[in-house]
Amino acid sequence: MAAEMALVKPISKFTNLSPKFSNPKGGFGFSYSKFSTIRMSATSQSTTNKPSKKAAKTAIKETLLTPRFYTTDFDEMEQLFNTEINKNLNQNEFEALLQEFKTDYNQTHFVRNKEFKEAADKLQGPLRQIFVEFLERSCTAEFSGFLLYKELGRRLKKTNPVVAEIFSLMSRDEARHAGFLNKGLSDFNFALDLGFLTKARKYTFFKPKFIFYATYLSEKIGYWRYITIYRHLKENPEFQCYPIFKYFENWCQDENRHGDFFSALMKAQPQFLNDWKAKLWARFFCLSVYVTMYLNDCQRTAFYEGIGLNTKEFDMHVIIETNRTTARIFPAVLDVENPEFKRKLDRMVEINQKLLAVGETEDIPLVKNLKRIPLVAALASEILAAYLMPPIESGSVDFAEFEPQLVY
Amino acid sequence: MSGVASLSRGCFAAASKATHFHNHNAKAVALPVSANCNCNSFYSFNSKGLAPPPLPITTKYSSVVKSAVTAVDSDQLSSSDPADKEQAKRYYFVVANAKFMLDEEEHFKEVLFERLRLYGERNKEQDFWLVIEPKFLDNFPNITKRLRRPAVALVSTNGPWITFMKLRLDRVLSESYEAESLEEALASNPTNIEFEKPEKWVAPYPKYEYGWWETFLPPGSKEEAKV
Fold it and tell me: Transmembrane residues, as ranges (chain A) (predicted)?
């Protein structure tokens, strides 16, 4: 998964969408044990509130790993895609997708070269720290996709072999991406102990419907983040400070395809798309993902500035494009191009910074919590106001009632 | 789907909705007749008028897809079968206005180049093209009446891939037709394509360059039976 699904999580934590980077070919089924460099002790209770950038490595160890792992109701998934039960399940798109995934466009793409280590050695000072964090968060997010897809591939094998195989092939992609990122970490003398992570991390549960919304958005926003970084760096090569970005163009095509698959999954379950509840959920998920990304990235402007991007402009571009893409499937999306939307996001950033500042004071926990109350309320009201902004009706033309009148 | 059948040559109207063709693979000649009156878009270049197997087309994309899936292997893998010259081949396409296809959907460009790169790596003969103002559209009145012009079609002999592209692009119409040669299949009317510069371009990178699609335009007429 390109971007971790950060939903309804405390936004001050290190949770969210992390850009991704890649792994050597054939990363599928890589063994965790081969990462033998310094192991970061991935503590599952890493809930430090402040991603202090200037802090020492130890602080990173505690905060970085917050991107979450997801699990779902596998029995319900089996039901949803059981071809025996759902005779009308439209398999055409799935079979087309299966062919696409089997094609394996990036089979030989993720091959490293010596530029990596050299570039890593040149990265010193604060930027080095930021890069490590970036790699780590990205690796964790990709790995979390790997685990989820792998399990879905296993569980759906009997009821819907085509869908199951697609999940397995997507987990192949995620494993490659995670492995490539982990190799990147080794350039900085770190490695994530993924085996340990698998066991020690807490898993967040989402019902299938929510997994669809969340992973769809996560993959598509991941695509837009990666392609934007790639194209920006292609235009401004002087900011190309680590070669992993050069892999992004091909890499993010995987993300985009993964997103297409979730699009097909939702189309196969129109009940998740066609009523008023679906519209509310669609808006909710859009908002959660956009807000989380915005707040997270605004805490890490050094990274984006380090590669020559203006964080807020980058994020708004990604949000607008993701929203346009999402409007091809979700029944409603947010009016993110309305300038008021960005103003609300910016106010959230300000409030969030105040919240983080409270966490950094020397006050006793009780006082901190009291100080937080008005801020949390203010943040909540901004979020609610953004949620209630007039939405944009949207969806696939395959479902649209007005389709016959459409001009293409 | 309109209930009015206006059939063009070669399309038989039969009556059962259930018999959507399953298998109009170039090799499988005996095709179930589609009947669904929506086959007004049928098109064939088959000048020999092979009478018996009328190849049906439905305007509904899902049915195209169904058949397409079974057709992949042969279509996809057959390199240069000499018999191809004689046999009509099926082409699948998605179509929309040029602005959408070539200017707005920048990921579309990435997908095409990615596929071309892959074909190069695997020594696979190209089986997808972009056609600007394709002639075959004349045979799809139900499409043309809903299409802004100039139009651009993505055409491929690989049906499932076109299904995938329909899923990806969404705002496109999808269909298929038969043609005897590549040249016929991809014939187009000369058209000038111009796009206005976007009013506000806020992306931190420039747009893909005008003309990127030229790589994917059909080969010159000389190259016909290459498929």
Answer: none
